[in-house]
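[#protein-structures] MJ: dropping Branched-chain-amino-acid aminotransferase here for a structure pass
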Amino acid sequence: MQKSTEPDPRSDGVEKYADVNWDELGFSFTPTDFMCMMRCCGGENFSQGALVPFRNIELSPCSTVLQYGQGLIEGLKAYRKEDDGSILLFRPEENALRMKMGAERMCMQSPSVEQFVDAVKQTILANKRWIPPPGKGALYLRPTLMGSSSVLGLRAATEYTFLVFASPVGNYQKAGTGLNLVVEEKFHRAIPGGTGDIKAVVNYSPTIKAAGAARAKGFSDVLFLDSLTGKYIEEVSGCNIFMLKGNILSTPATNGNILPGITRKSIIELAKDFGYQVEERDIPVEDVFDANEVFCTGTAVGVTPVASITYQDKRFEYRTGEETVSFKLHVALTGIQSGSIEDKKGWTVKI
Ligand code: COI
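AK: finished. structure tokens for Branched-chain-amino-acid aminotransferase:
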């Protein structure tokens, strides 16, 4: 990794924390000091990455990411550990592999797993003062891959840019009693054979209209149904969904339309460890009506309880609070991520 010529905040004498009101952190963008960038041209491998000061990037107006949405994102979090102040990253190789899978689908070149993980680590170290104090949040990393050469006829770019930037974040949703979702019946987020199972930039913008309309009516977000039959639940705009009935925890199967969430995968494993039976299957929307608990998972949302789901003007309510299974899973997951619970699974990477 090449170093920037700018002053390096990793050097001695730099303050431990940036000037941030850590108690007011939400999930919004705060620019940090450095980002990591690398390029690849004409079928070559990606160059060695370079840390550069965070800034706007120069991009051809005719680049494939702008014209045809040839872009992928990832999201992962780094935590400051309470006891020794070290930094922990959660399952970064999973993000690297998911980006590779997405790149294959979108005809893009992608950095190797090692390049991806190294770029993430270097970005974290260069922005260390932006990692919130223990218990106040995390440093959110946003690896981004884009077709950056100019192409007018519809085909893949010949140049790709990979960058990683960072922002300190707190909770995605305001702390409260849980999400109030409404089932979306007009718009869909994924189609069979489409890109619902990769983290393509084009998967997110089409959800904004439906989620915005839902918020205007007082809901927190929408729950999408499958586009083929309109019978089965799929995802919320930016996260996976689970429901609990008795001892059985169910989540939509990754059938091509569902993003294989890393939090989703981790929660499935933790829930099995806790003795719950986990089913990945097609879930008819009616099945959620009499669930005991419903919750969402994702890097940004963590494990967030759902307080209600409204479908065709009928509202169904679920348990929330500290006695719930979702809370138990949230405590277990964030404990491992932040280092307050021993990581017996080898999920965390110490930097
Ligand atoms: C994440 O959870 O990391 C995402 O990228 C979802 C996004 C809607 C914030």
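MJ: nice. The longest strand covers residues 159-169.
AK: one more thing. The helical segments are 64-68, 92-105, 113-126, 208-216, 262-273, 325-338.
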